[in-house]
Fold these 4 entries.
Entry 1:
Amino acid sequence: MRLTDYTDYSLRVLLYLAVRGEGLSTIQDISEAYGISKNHLMKVVQRLSELGWVETVRGRNGGLRLAERTRTLTVGEIVRATENDFALVACLPDQDGQRRPCVITPQCRLRNVLEAARHAFLAELDRHTIEEVSGPQGPLAALLGIRPVIPLVPVEPPGDSPVPIA
């Protein structure tokens, strides 16, 4: 079984945003990190936004970030939402429940084996969340060219610090 590029890119976008954390990212950032076309990513991000998995912020300083609930999504849930066909062979039901007839269907054991394999594949994907596959974030961030977000620490202006009493 092979996943479509659309599903691959969807997983990569979610992984990138999970590693990135709180800050906003742009489609350009993700495109450069993975070497993927911005046009393809725009379609993917639009769908991920429609699903509520990615939050988008419009404007000059806008971008996108992972919706909080997305961290607990399983890889299987994402694959099911982005793939359009899990019929490994023509006699298995497609997305619409349709299947092509086959002359050996009444005695075929292969169909059941392939159906079981598909279920096992998706069951394994259901065991892993985006949060889990995005760690450890440091090494992944380095590979993706993501610099760590340094939290701002308030600095006391000079002269406002307490003076020790002798």
Entry 2:
Amino acid sequence: MAISATVIRAKISIADMTRHYYQDHHLTLAQHPSENENRLMIRLLAFAINAQEDLQFTKGLSTSDEPEIWLKDLTDTIELWIELGLPDESRLKKAANRSKHSILYCYDEKSFDPWFKKMESKLPKKKMDIFKINDEDAKNLESLYARALDLQINIDESEIMITDNNTHKTINISVVKVN
């Protein structure tokens, strides 16, 4: 018998002072059986950082033809492709070729440097921004995990403050490459 996805309900109130975006989002996320809590929370964070009206989660891990999150226009053109982790070269090329812009959020510090050394010359030269979340911040984010989330997310440049009813966490995103 196959293990089914876990349904996560999230209410996130975003105050992004950098982009002047202030909005509440009521989201339903499917946590794939192979997706750990850390990765799901990073996926939610990536959504919050890039939030806009038509931004959507995709099937994610269950399909190789879609990113984790995307923004499509009315003609079905992919405006924004958001990827997580340390993907292979073909995945990065697909992101750059199929979208107008792509963003990669990397995590797992000990694997990042060898991956980046190997991939740096193969990275798309245009249309891709790369950011890194350090292990301590990823663990702080994971500590907020629950099947029903109610989060206030304040974004100011690369510093993100996330608050639930009991805790307050600060997450910093490092810029690796921006086009």
Entry 3:
Amino acid sequence: MGANIFEGSYTTENNEDIVVFLIGMRINKRRAVRKWWPVFSAMPGMIRELYQHKEELGFLSVESYFGLRTTVMIQYWKSTEDLMAYAKGEKHLHAWRAFNQKVGNNDAVGVYHETYVIKKGSYESIYRNMPAYGLANALKHIPITPDKKSAKKRLATHYNTKEEIK
């Protein structure tokens, strides 16, 4: 499984609002597999659904990380409205109900999420010799041109005037 490496320097356009949603779980009691496995195994089906219906759901992309006890997914969404609509959807509600029935307030497993609304022009990125990753999977991936060579220049719309950028 070879990744398509983009040689050189790339960035993403930052001309639209985005939502970054972090969601994950922590295994507090490793031997309590019956408690944490249902939480862990619910996510792949939801991610599959998100990718199958990206446009209609407003889902852009996800990156996943697995530690010894803690997992995190970084999801990119078009809007909070899209994210909230998915949270109220059948697949997510089914997983949430199952979690509450099987785990509830049991301390064997924890779950968390954080939501960040990021306004257009107030984020930037750079990728050198990388496959499309993170925001580059979620937004338009473009080569860096001289007018976008520095982080400050990529954040130009965040500043009041172009004179502030040197």
Entry 4:
Amino acid sequence: MEWLDIYDEHGNRTGKTAERGTFLSKGEYFLCAHVILENTDGLFLIQQRSDTKATRPGQWDITAGAVDCGEVSLDGALREAKEEVGLTLPREKMQFLFRDKRRSCYHDVYYIQIPFSLQDCTMQESEVQDLRLVTRKELLDLLEQMSHRSPNYKRRLTEFLSHRS
């Protein structure tokens, strides 16, 4: 059972919590954290969702997940990276990119570049069934295909990635 804080339409905690998967009232939101992981070779980590997942089984995505009750989004991002792909990320190198709102969820997007390889990663089998390192162009192509990401999310992430040297 996973409990999450409920946020209002301005992105503030309401003081209420709900179980993950609960239908929220209009103007209520959960918070998710996303991590764009780039290694020092300029390759980005993507993960294939487990075939047993209820939503988007088998689809390729970036590291992301719900922010637990009492966590701030940065803590959620660090925890998700550790749980899903086995990487302990340095907090001080995490760069907040933007917040996007889609349906009943806010998505806080972070970026980090650190040295790592696929051999450094450990998959959480209940969440992830494969990992891959891709080029910036491959990540942008994947992003364009993601129907579960808003146009604003895609535009802002594309702008950020396109301006990276």
